[in-house]
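Final report, closing paragraph on structural work. Over the funding period we assembled a curated collection of sequence-structure pairs, and we close with a single example.
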Amino acid sequence: MAVQGSSDVLVDELYETTQQLRRFVESRLRTSGASVARLRAMRMLARSERPLRMRDLSEMTGVAARTTTSIVDSLERDGLVERVRHPDDRRAFLLRLTDDGMRCHREAEEVDRLALAEATAGLGAEDRTRFRALLAVVREATAGQD
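Its predicted structure, as stored:
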């Protein structure tokens, strides 16, 4: 039973499940020196066709600028991300994954994939389709409400 944090037990259970799933994946990623936050940042950098500004990365990951800076600083310290001068703005830097960062990203993505497959192994194809449809209903009802 979820801890009552809202007026709707369904919402409480959804939140608790999301948090538990994050902890589950986090524990798997930790064994390879990664984290959910670091993986999300590396994922956005890997998927981008060009280096990104810190602000862009923050917006893409939905993380506060200060938190994004901390994540990028740790990735840079580990040699996974590098800052390069912006070609049009001398004051700005762009972020890109290093070769080690690309390798680390690929490895972390595989750990993430396996962890999520393990966590959702009890759901059949029909369950997954129905669950996704239900989540879409909630997203649609709350879209554009921020």
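The first helix runs from residue 9 to 30. Residues 137 and 144 are 14 Å apart (CA to CA). We thank the funder for supporting this effort.
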